[in-house]
Amino acid sequence: MRVSKKVILEEDFPIKEVLLNWARQFNEVVWFDSNGHRDQYSQYDAVLAVDAFTAIQTDAFEAFNKLKEYQETTRDWIFGYLSYDLKNDVENLESENYDGLNFPELFFFQPKKILFLKGNELELRYLKMVDDEVEEDLEHILQKGDFQKEFFSREGNSVKMQARISKEDYVQKVEKMQFHIQRGDIYEANFCQEFYAEGVEFDPLQKFMALNAISRPPFATFLKNYDQYLLSASPERYLQKNGDQLITQPIKGTAPRARFDPEKDEMLALQLEQDPKERSENVMIVDLVRNDLSKTAKKGSVEVVELCKVYSYPQVHQMISTVKAILDSGIPAVEVLRTTFPMGSMTGAPKISAMEIIEELEETKRGLYSGAVGYFDPSGDFDFNVVIRSILYNATAKYVSFSVGGAITSRSVPENEYRECLVKAAALKQVMEEQE
């Protein structure tokens, strides 16, 4: 079905910048970059998929059934996203909050051209209908030419972001959430707030490059669907299927870095690791994802292989747990996503009550934020991130947005939660507001 060609690159060849710039010409683009982070579950350094041969986009109604049919019919590489509001397909819920972005709630496409980067090897896998373009594309990509001038000479616009709700409103809403906790409706819920700007124009690719340079996350994503863009610096894996092995790596617990003070930086990481509130948040979410995985896993196969481990990224320290399971036989790949979606780290526990309370207290429809972006391969294996630390842009509507949030528990101090939001928002705000 696909023709493959591999080439070895020169050591200093700026392949990532070249590929992203080359991708500008296409209406559908997905770029994944692991930024040099290697773990036992990673397969590629970067992947670029462009130019839809077929595609599916839909609202939440029957979305997972439509995706299952599309994935099983295509039996090829497909790339795309699941928006948070697919919760309405999984449960009897609704999304009535304001939406300035108006993205489809599900979007996947079968690319004509996929490029895989591993070390200094670039592999092109093209559908047979465009295999006569392999050599021409390679020639264009490998010719450094004036790409740097072309790429970096675009003038960047400074975009001033404003909060959808005030600090006072945020504190009141957290207190309402804690009332629900004290009443026993929930144990924990993820509460988010939006920062946005209207009537703005900027180069999304340039802003993505700036965000990625600051954050260097393991699940960086640039996605373009015509005039709709995702610029993601996600540090979190939602779910990976590799054969019959399932892996999820929820994040709960964030602390700032002190990069120019190693002693203080180490102390901040240690404080996070030992913080009883952060650990209890993480453990609650681990219990939730264990329960979600058990719906499709072989009995007794769900296992926590790493609990509350602190990982350090350029902007923040994060507390991450890893949960594995063995998929029961005969269960379709999409069913694993359906039974675990949305991810527990972005909802709370119990999940349905948390989502109802989130809808009541948040001001903005989440959409793609706190959804997932990823791919299926021809065998039905998949890998998806969690859409956090991400900028969303509708170029036609000239509306740009990012949201940040955190887990609210009975121990939460609303002022501290607000400060944590600002820590998470710092890189996003910096990228949007700086003049290139």
Can you put this structure into words, describing what you see?
With 436 residues, the chain is an alpha+beta fold. The chain has a single domain, classed as Anthranilate synthase, CATH 3.60.120.10. It is built from 12 helices and 20 strands. It has a 20-stranded antiparallel β-sheet that branches. The longest helix is centred in the C-terminal third of the chain and has 20 residues, at 414-433.
Could you list some keywords that capture this structure?
globular; 12 helices; 20-stranded antiparallel beta sheet; 436 residues; Anthranilate synthase; alpha+beta
What is the CATH topology assignment?
A: Anthranilate synthase
Summing up helix and strand content along with how strands pair, one would put the structural category as alpha+beta
Largest sheet: 20 strands, antiparallel
Question: Helicity level, as a percent range?
Answer: 25-40%
Quickly count the helices.
12
- Proportion in β-strands: 25-35%
Instruction: Give the distance, in angstroms, between the N- and C-terminal Cα atoms.
Output: 43 Å
Mean pLDDT: 94
CATH architecture: 4-Layer Sandwich
Shape: globular
Poorly predicted tracts of residues? none
Radius of gyration: 21 Å
Q: Could you name the CATH homologous superfamily?
A: Anthranilate synthase
Number of domains: 1
Broad CATH class: Alpha Beta
How many β-strand runs?
20
